[in-house]
């Protein structure tokens, strides 16, 4: 007796086999902290994340420390092997995401870029270099660092605990596997900082002729101080700001004998200027960090001045060098400071 099997039956049978195979491999990797199968969730709390009001989109406003974790992963595959994957925003359907800011991740030293919440979590997974064979259980050491990048007007209203990524296999996401969450979203705030200056003329008390001719003379001169006044809608954010970093611009008239020097009120005499070992020419800029407490800060600006004589010396020439005018030599310098970034304690 022959048994005839219809094509429909064969199709159903094949589909059932494929479903059973897929189901048996659905949860291919179980990953947890160290060697504890119950330790799968970790969180990072944002400290005071302060960014300058008016900061450009694309500015990175926060970076975490680099975390090193020992993670154990156990393959539950029936056959073959698979990579470990990073799944961004695995709970995107149930968690509120911040507006105007995106999160990025360095994983094992590689920048995975900014995470996007569009689409589903499975399609946005990122492959790592860790590969597990069927039934393999192995501990691995992974490193990661989180960063925030401004993308628009930032709003964190309604954001509490956001799962940034989960480690899992290729096929699907387990209900519980190693995952990292970010909380403390109410600690983000914008800050405005205004700067002002108390300015003095750069002064040389006297001049050593031989050293000035050789270019080896130097003297310290406090040319002024910068003052900062910062404000924020968040008193918590403001209280954690420790420094404001930015660009100090030093304007002045260039010396006719060498445009890298500043002109002085004496014929044939220019002055070189440097701050903390970095030379600056008229119109040049320097990096400057100003300490801040409770939104207020100041910093005295002491420059090293190097006088340079370029005129030929003769009896009575230049005339100012042989009189009391060889003292209290002045050079006009105009300073301005543009805040660029904030540091928190």
TrEMBL record:
Position of the signal peptide: 1-28
Keywords recorded for this protein, A-Z: Signal
Signal recorded as keyword: yes
Protein name: Fimbrial protein
């Amino acid at each position: 007796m022959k048994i005839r099997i219809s094509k429909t039956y064969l199709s159903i049978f094949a589909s059932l086999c494929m479903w059973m195979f897929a189901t048996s491999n659905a949860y291919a990797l179980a990953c947890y902290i160290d060697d504890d199968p119950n330790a799968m969730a970790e969180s990072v709390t944002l400290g005071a994340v302060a960014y300058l009001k008016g900061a450009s989109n694309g500015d990175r406003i926060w970076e975490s420390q680099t975390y090193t974790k020992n993670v154990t992963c156990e393959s539950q595959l029936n056959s073959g092997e698979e990579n470990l994957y990073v799944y961004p925003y695995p709970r995107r359907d149930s968690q509120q995401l911040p507006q105007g800011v995106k999160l990025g991740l360095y994983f094992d030293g590689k920048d995975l870029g900014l995470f996007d919440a569009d689409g589903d979590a499975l399609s946005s997974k990122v492959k790592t270099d860790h590969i597990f064979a069927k039934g393999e259980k192995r501990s691995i050491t992974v490193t990661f660092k989180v960063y925030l990048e401004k993308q628009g007007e930032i709003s964190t209203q309604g954001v509490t605990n956001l799962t940034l990524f989960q480690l899992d296999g290729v096929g699907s996401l387990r209900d519980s596997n190693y995952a990292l969450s970010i909380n403390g979203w109410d600690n983000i705030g914008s800050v405005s900082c205004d700067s002002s200056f108390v300015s003095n003329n750069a002064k040389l008390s006297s001049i050593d002729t031989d050293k000035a001719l050789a270019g080896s003379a130097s003297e310290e001169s406090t040319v002024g101080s910068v003052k900062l006044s910062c404000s924020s809608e968040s008193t918590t954010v403001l209280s954690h700001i420790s420094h404001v970093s930015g660009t100090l611009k030093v304007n002045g008239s260039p010396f006719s004998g060498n445009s890298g020097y500043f002109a002085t009120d004496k014929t044939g005499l220019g002055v070189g200027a440097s701050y903390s070992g970095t030379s600056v020419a008229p119109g040049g800029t320097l990096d400057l960090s100003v300490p801040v407490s409770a939104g207020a800060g100041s910093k005295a600006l002491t420059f090293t001045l190097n006088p340079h004589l370029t005129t030929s010396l003769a009896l009575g020439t230049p005339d100012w060098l042989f009189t009391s005018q060889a003292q209290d030599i002045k050079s006009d310098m105009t300073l301005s400071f543009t805040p660029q970034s904030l540091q928190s304690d």
